[in-house]
């Protein structure tokens, strides 16, 4: 099986469980969406490989920061949104695993990350703010910007303004030079599995 592995607290448990299955004999080759997930996967006994040019991923498993009723997602709290979106789109199946607290009703009252390149980032931020959208550069410590595994910045966009259409804003942001990707995922998930406090799961529909 050729799989993509996401990033985040929920995926952490998936990686540990998958590692147990691999040690029991399950044949898995995986691509991880972050250095953090890759390190944990290797420690758990999962074989990490480079992308294969002539083979699609069988499945990508990832978490989400928020899930909306139309099955669109907000991802990127861990800073891996660009790589996560690459793996999600490259897979035959994209399965999202979350806990019940991640189910959200209003797309217009959330914040989500935008990955931008460091070069002339002040100009990119000017262009973003011309869309009447504000936010903050994510920091790692003090005044030092957080860097993604791609060496880029994260601008956490505030979408609490009235009248913001997330689908439209996603397209507008991607059209700006300097913007690499946004944390808004359209409804592309094959399956969304929700865990509850009662240690049960159900499929979000």
TrEMBL record:
**Gene3D superfamilies to which the protein is assigned, alphabetical:** 3.30.70.260, 3.40.50.1360
Any idea of its EC number? 5.3.1.6
Q: What is the lineage of its organism?
A: Bacteria, Candidatus Aerophobota
Q: What is this protein called?
A: Ribose 5-phosphate isomerase A
Q: What's the source species for this entry?
A: Aerophobetes bacterium
- What is a single Pfam family found in this protein's UniProt entry? Rib_5-P_isom_A
Tell me which UniProt keywords the record has, alphabetically: Isomerase
An example GO BP is: D-ribose metabolic process
Q: Where are the transmembrane segments?
A: none
> Would you tell me the Gene Ontology cellular component terms?
cytosol
Please give the Gene Ontology molecular function terms for this protein: ribose-5-phosphate isomerase activity
- InterPro entries attached here? NagB/RpiA_transferase-like, Ribose5P_isomerase_type_A
């Amino acid at each position: 099986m050729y799989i993509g592995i996401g990033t985040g607290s929920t995926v952490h448990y998936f990686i540990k469980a998958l590692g147990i299955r691999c040690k029991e004999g399950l044949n898995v080759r995986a691509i991880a969406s972050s250095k953090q997930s890759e390190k944990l996967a290797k420690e758990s006994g999962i074989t990490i490989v480079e992308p294969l040019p002539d083979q699609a991923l069988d499945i990508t498993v990832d978490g989400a920061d928020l899930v909306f009723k139309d099955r669109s997602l907000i991802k990127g709290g861990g800073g891996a949104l660009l790589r996560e979106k690459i793996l999600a789109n490259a897979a035959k199946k994209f399965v999202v695993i979350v806990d019940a607290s991640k189910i959200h009703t209003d797309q217009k009252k959330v914040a989500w990350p935008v990955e931008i390149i460091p070069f002339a980032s002040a100009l990119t931020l000017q262009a973003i703010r011309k869309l009447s959208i504000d936010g903050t550069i994510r920091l790692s410590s003090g005044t030092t910007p957080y860097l993604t595994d791609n060496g880029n910045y994260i601008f956490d966009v505030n979408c609490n303004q009235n009248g913001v259409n997330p689908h439209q804003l996603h397209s507008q942001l991607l059209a700006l030079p300097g913007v690499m990707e946004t944390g808004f995922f359209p409804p592309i998930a094959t399956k969304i599995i929700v865990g509850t406090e009662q240690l049960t799961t159900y499929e979000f529909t």
